[in-house]
Structure formats: structure tokens, C-alpha cells
Amino acid sequence: MNNLVKAIRSLVFLSLVLIGFNAFAEDEVEEVVVTGSLIKVSAQNQAVPVDVIGRAELEAQGSPNMIDVILNLPSM
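C-alpha cells predicted for TonB-dependent receptor plug domain-containing protein:
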């Protein structure tokens, strides 16, 4: 199970890195909307680490890209 979690984290990180390369070519900033499903389970009861960050935390961190934000998460 531990190897599976590491593999999933690696794939997510790699996909975010590759997505970030395309962002350099764009000049205008687009709005990003993230949606999900409302599942009534707390983050503490998950089998894998779950970090919940909101707008205030993103603005307080002041990182220019999402890769820096993800690398600063406690679960990474």
C-alpha cells in the first residue's frame, strides 16, 4: 500500500510539473475553478493524507505557481 501511495504522489507531481511548462507560454491569467464531490467524510479519517487549503492559505503563501504550494504541503 505504501508503494502505491508513493506511486500516486509521483504521478500527481509529475503531471503538475508537465502542466506547469505550458503555463510559461500564456500571457494572460485565467480563472481556475476546482470542483469536487461532497462526500461526508472528515480529512482525518482518510486512508491517505488529505490536505485542505483554501483561498486565504494560498494568498498567505504567496507562491507564484501551484508546484511551490504543493511542495510546501505537510503530506508531501
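The chain has a mean pLDDT of 75.
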